[in-house]
Write a structure and sequence with these properties.
Strand content: 25-35%
Strand order of the largest sheet: 2-1-3
Order of helices and strands: HEEE
Structural class: alpha+beta
Distance between the termini: 31 Å
């Protein structure tokens, strides 16, 4: 992983910590992800969310049972929207 990639992953982790107020969910979870990229470059969308939430929204990404997702573009303000709930 590049230095930029590690920095972005750490940023996602801190942002998730700031927004998730509860304890990590136990058991299976479902997730909806919308990624707003700043460019239309190719990207592996599933790596952008699952590891950043380990230990925050759920204990481990192996708990993820269902994922729905959408890619979008926001050149001025790239961001990620996540919803996690018990399955």
């Amino acid at each position: 992983m590049t230095h930029e990639g590690r920095a972005l992953k750490e940023k996602y982790h801190w942002e998730a910590r700031a927004q998730w107020k509860g304890k990590p969910l136990k058991g299976e979870v479902r997730m909806h992800v919308t990624l707003y990229f700043g460019t239309k470059r190719r990207a592996d969308w599933d790596n952008f969310h699952k590891h950043a939430l380990n230990g925050i929204a759920y204990e481990d990404d192996s708990q993820i049972r269902q994922v729905t997702g959408m890619l979008a573009y926001d050149k001025q303000n790239p961001w990620i929207e996540l919803a996690v709930e018990p399955y």
